[in-house]
Amino acid sequence: MPTPRRTQKQRRDQAEAALLAAAAELVVEQGVRSLTLARVGERAGYSRGIIAHHFGSKQALLELLARTAQAGFVPGLADLPPGLDRLLRLIDGYIGELGQVGAARHAFLLLWAEAPTMPELAPIFRERDESFRADLRVEVAAGIADGTIRDDLAPEEVAPAIVGQLRGIGLQRLLDPPAVDTERLRRSVTEQWRRALATPSARQP
């Protein structure tokens, strides 16, 4: 049987995925400062014209890499309603995923660490962090509304504390993997947040 011809969208999606994978690998291997569109195209087996057509600029490439690496980081959350249980599942799952981080997520954490000193990265990661904090604020507010999270807590204060802890664990894992046992940490950190956030009636797992 002849192989069905791919549609233009399928070809574009395949090229984009290959270019993003190549960009992530190069960030991990050589750092973001040495990344160029030409090197990404060469690694992925595409011409510079193709990568310029897809992304237009290095900044656009990095922005899409950051978005795709962060999207769906913790699977299985969509089936849970917003609130304490989903928030704790996110914390547990996030730390668990750090233990098996691939090139794209490794690259995301490296880019995030570089963002404060790179003007082209700073806006991207301000937006990514605010998106993460906004999602967490929704979870905390929902938990307060349904009585599972203490009502003396402020979502806008809880959210950056959680982001800071999770990102910090991720960076430590990149620097010294043997020193950061994510399987043990995921249980203890999740329980710490349960005790800190939950109302007395919701403290039992």
UniProtKB/TrEMBL annotation:
PANTHER family: HTH-TYPE TRANSCRIPTIONAL REGULATOR BETI (PTHR30055:SF234), HTH-TYPE TRANSCRIPTIONAL REGULATOR RUTR (PTHR30055). It comes from Streptomyces malaysiensis. One of its GO terms (molecular function) is DNA-binding transcription factor activity. Keywords: DNA-binding, Repressor, Transcription, Transcription regulation. This is HTH tetR-type domain-containing protein. It comes from the Bacteria. Signal peptide: none annotated. Residues 13-73 form the HTH tetR-type domain. Residues 36-55 bind DNA.
